[in-house]
Amino acid sequence: MPLISEPLQHRLVQLRRVLHEYPELSGQEQNTAAVISKFLEGLSIAHRNGLAGHGVLADIPGPSGVPCVVLRADIDALPIQEETGLEFASVHDGVMHACGHDGHTAMLLGAAALLSEDKDLPAPVRLIFQPAEEKGTGALAMVQAGVLDGAGMIFGGHLDRHYPPGTIVVSEGPVNASTDNFTIEIIGQGAHGARPHEGIDAVVVGSLMIMALQTIVSREVDPARPSVVSVGQFHAGTAPNVIGGQARLDGTVRAQDPAVRRQLLSSVRRIAESIAQLHGAKIEVTITEGTPPLVNSAEMADLARRAAIEVVGENNVVPLKTANMGGEDFSYYMEKIPGAYVRFGSQVPGKEGFPAHSSKFDFDEGALAVGAAFYRSIAKVAGRRLADHAIRS
Ligand code: NI
């Protein structure tokens, strides 16, 4: 039996293609929100627009006195010039759905269609269509807009090219890493390139700092705990014969464990300060906190696994192969309420080499039906758990 009806499957593919053709950047998802709104209106589902920018919240009623199950899709695109050659490729220059959020949006709308027909929901279901995931700011803004008020659990997922279509990836433990950025301003003393002894060379200080920062992961952190410290930018100097008086390093720090996250950030600061002091330079370190690590608890992963098995069968529910050090702002919701984040296999043969955020990224549209059916399934599995608790308490 197909996972969802053929006409709905067809509509989801059409929806995904329309969203793909007209992608919008973080914070500018006006037309995307209009497409979502129109689809929900067609289903007579009550919803609100304009949350945290262009976010949309839809409520599907259930028994009173039971907290709702929240399902989330992200809806924004990336500043990338598309090179897929697809017939529905982006018509917006330099903007592309290169992370599959067009698919995430379509599958959650599919779930809306399935759930709106269900007269026997154990708990109310709330669908949230979140803007600005790529900037890492949308989820927190949605939380602040109150989308978790009255909510009991939350679930979400991402398309993943590492796994074949028809599979759902469910793991307990770390799913995504924290994403903090740092900036180190180095203030030395400019001088003539021929008389280095008269200055404090910020280029040399910066270079030593970059090399010393490599020892945090290799020498300080438990090797069994994945972590990353990368310097992505090094700006300094004005001319070949001038000792650079100032330099600036920008980097990112990733961890899957809150304690390791704190350790990495404090080590960056300590090493930067020590190297600066060693050479008589001054520095200013600025840490910009990003998303927290995303960690599925055993209990929530178990619920998600049961829902996934109902959809694709036990053999097609697989664990995460390797740790993912990318960030996902879904973690902000899970700081507030229990939940889990899964992945939907969507490998396209021959395109495995084009990861998310690549200009040639694409995914298997068969994953849309899997995602829609999974969201219906988890709404019921998690809803029953919430209803049981509501009766007992
Ligand atoms: Ni994404």
Walk me through the structure.
This protein has 393 residues and is of the alpha/beta class. It has an eight-stranded mixed β-sheet, sandwiched between helices. The model has no long low-confidence stretch (mean pLDDT 97). The structure holds nickel (II) ion (NI). Nickel (II) ion (NI) binds next to loops.
The major beta sheet can be summarized as:
8 strands, mixed
Strand order in the sheet with the most strands: 1-2-4-3-5-16-6-15
The coarse overall form would be elongated
Class of secondary structure makeup: alpha/beta
Strand-residue proportion: 15-25%
Number of strands: 16
Distance between the termini: 39 Å
Bound molecules: nickel (II) ion
Encode the helix/strand succession as letters: HHEEEHEHEEEEEHEEEHEEHEHEH
Number of helices: 9
Quick summary of this structure?
By secondary structure, the protein is of the alpha/beta class. It has nine helices and 16 strands.
What is the element layout, followed by pairings?
Elements: H1 6-21, H2 30-42, E1 47-51, E2 55-60, E3 68-74, H3 101-116, E4 125-130, H4 138-144, E5 151-160, E6 168-169, E7 173-176, E8 178-187, E9 191-192, H5 202-220, E10 227-236, E11 242-243, E12 246-255, H6 258-278, E13 282-288, E14 294-296, H7 298-312, E15 317-318, H8 331-334, E16 339-345, H9 366-392
Helix pairs in contact: 1-3, 3-9, 5-6, 7-9
The protein binds nickel (II) ion (NI).
Nickel (II) ion binds next to loops.
